[in-house]
Design goal:
This protein has helices at about 15-25, 65-70, 105-115, 130-145, 180-190, 205-220, 265-275, 295-305, 375, 385-400, 410-415, 440-460, 510-525; strands spanning about 1-10, 35-45, 55-60, 75-80, 100, 125, 225-230, 230-240, 240-245, 250-255, 260, 280, 285-295, 320, 325-335, 340, 350-355, 365-370, 405, 425-430, 430-435, 470-475, 480, 495. With about 525 residues, it is of the alpha/beta class. Strand 2 and strand 3 (about 55-60) form a beta hairpin.
């Protein structure tokens, strides 16, 4: 196969034959010489709003490929590389017990999936419930406000990303092709094949739930075992090595490998691990708000008048450096989505964004968040958690248990809103007007008020007066990093912290990749558990 880059196709003409003609033109070969092609990457060139192109990278099957490449002089045409994930060689140490994985978010699920593939028969414990039951609990919470603190938007099978847009784009890239392993596994479990090459790959929360269920069933078929409503409540250590865990404050399970994929919201677990002298450190994270616009406005800004209805729901990415030196940026942008109540603790309120696969709601929403540093909240490794909890408690109080919302112009003027403009709120959970400045620390409010007009210069109309803001976006990433060595173990031998909660990832794909890295470290040391 031959790899061909920079294959340009007009958006309005895009189809199988048009791509084939563009490949033919790029290769300077007749159409009949092209036997087959496979899309490897797709991007969008929208610099000229009067003519937008898809840009493809493809693998092409030709007759006499070797002879063709000998004559080729273009740097955009070359022999297709082998892009396939390969497991490492297995180590020689024996396991006394089956590996235990705590948490079934992306890091935990992929750690379990790969261990099961290699016949290590992992045990997965999850404090929440299977995704089918969890989904019903979350919908009930949004409708009634009745919160299950162990099964909600944060806790349960699939992790926090289950109730999101299911975005899969990541800046992580390596020569081991771990990302390709993640995406191909998702496709094998029911995701659309376009995630393998799309410039903005996403699954959508509705499809993601089915994918997670299928991953579970495959893990079980390969020898894995799941235990739900099973919370890690203690660890037992001997001579700086893990010996057993306690679950639900009562049952002791022996183990010599413990993968900690606990997610960013398992605050009680962080405190217990710290009490048991697992080394941790505070890390920067970010907090802020969510902003809603009508999706058609974002489409017009990004794609122009001609293409605004041809390219689906548009995304955006914005960054700004405030005068204080703090970064202000968009995060977890959800086209055609919903702002959702993502609370996981009584009398504390946190929000997130979510989209279904079709991204068909009338609003776009995105977090707008501001960097916070350990100097903002204290020197103790767990002070960042207390900072988050203080914000969430304030949000709950100011909103009287409902999501606090405010129009952009009123936020700038430090006054409570009284009516909506052209944007209607698209929310999962109850909401009420409030002054978000009463929730956010002064340095966060000021940074956002400084950034919003700047974002309006980058995307004309972004800072429209009646855009709807909501608070508080506090769970962007873990405020804690569990220290690990170059073998990916904590200071307690046999404990492998991984994923977003441990401070080593930031999203579905990067968390899954980190779970794979931990599996590689385990495989390189231990034989499969065969008893």
């Amino acid at each position: 196969m031959i790899r061909v880059r920079q294959v340009k196709v007009k958006v309005e003409e895009d189809n199988t034959e048009a791509r084939k003609k563009a490949i033919s033109k790029k290769l300077r070969l007749p159409l009949e010489k092209i036997k087959n092609y496979t899309i490897r990457k797709q991007s969008l060139d929208a610099r000229d709003k009067t003519q937008i192109y898809y840009i493809y990278e493809v693998d092409v099957e030709l007759e006499q490929e070797t002879e063709f490449l000998k004559k080729n002089t273009s740097t955009d045409i070359f022999l297709s590389p082998k892009e396939e994930y390969v497991f490492p060689e297995v180590g020689h140490e024996n396991l006394t017990h089956r590996p235990i994985i705590v948490g079934s978010g992306p890091a935990g699920l992929f750690a379990a999936y790969l261990l099961a593939e290699k016949k290590y028969r992992p045990i997965i414990i999850e404090r929440g419930e299977p995704v089918e039951i969890r989904e019903k609990k979350v919908e009930q919470f949004w409708q009634t406000g009745k919160l299950d603190v162990e099964s909600n938007v944060q806790f349960g099978e699939g992790g926090a990303g289950t109730f999101s847009d299911g975005k899969l784009n990541t800046l992580v890239n390596d020569s081991r092709y771990r990302k390709e392993k993640v995406l191909s596994t998702f496709v094998a479990c029911g995701a659309n094949e376009d995630i393998l090459y799309s410039y903005k790959p996403h699954i959508g929360t509705d499809i993601l739930k089915k994918v997670i269920r299928n991953m579970r069933q495959k893990i079980i078929a390969m020898g894995g075992e799941f235990f739900y409503q099973t919370c890690l409540t203690d660890i037992i250590v001997e001579k700086e090595k893990i010996k057993a865990i306690e679950v639900n404050h009562q049952k002791i399970i022996p183990c010599d490998i413990l993968v900690l994929a606990i997610g960013h919201s398992s605050r009680d677990t962080f405190f217990k691990l710290y009490e048991r002298k697992i080394q941790m450190e505070a890390k920067p994270f970010a907090v802020g708000i969510r902003i809603q616009h009508r999706q058609e406005v974002i489409n017009q800004i990004q794609y122009g008048n001609f293409y605004q209805n041809q390219l689906g729901s548009a995304t955006y990415k914005l960054t700004y450096k405030a005068k204080t030196g703090r970064g202000v940026y968009s995060f977890c942008m959800c086209p055609g989505g919903y702002v959702v109540d993502a609370s996981s603790k009584e009398k504390m309120l946190a929000i997130n964004g979510m989209s279904y696969h079709n991204r068909a709601s009338e609003n776009a929403n995105s977090a707008l968040i501001v960097t916070v540093f350990p100097r903002d909240f204290g020197s103790h490794p767990l002070d960042g958690i207390k900072y988050q909890e203080k914000l969430e408690t304030k949000a709950y109080q100011v909103g009287k248990g409902k999501i606090p919302i405010q129009l952009l112009d009123d936020f700038m003027k430090n006054q409570e809103s009284t009516k909506f403009g052209t944007v209607n709120p698209i929310m999962k959970g109850n909401y009420t007007f409030a002054n978000l400045n009463e929730i956010l620390p002064k340095e966060i409010s000021q940074s956002l008020q400084e950034a919003l007009p700047y974002f309006g210069t980058k995307m004309k109309g972004f800072d429209q007066k009646d855009a709807i803001l909501a608070a508080v976006e506090s769970r962007t990433s873990s405020p804690v990093r569990i220290v690990r060595n170059d073998r990916l173990e904590s200071n307690i031998s046999g404990i492998y912290p991984c994923g977003e909660g441990a401070g080593y990832a930031g999203g579905i794909t990067s968390s899954a990749i980190d779970g794979i890295k931990v599996v590689e470290a385990i495989l390189e040391k231990y034989q499969p558990f065969l008893n």
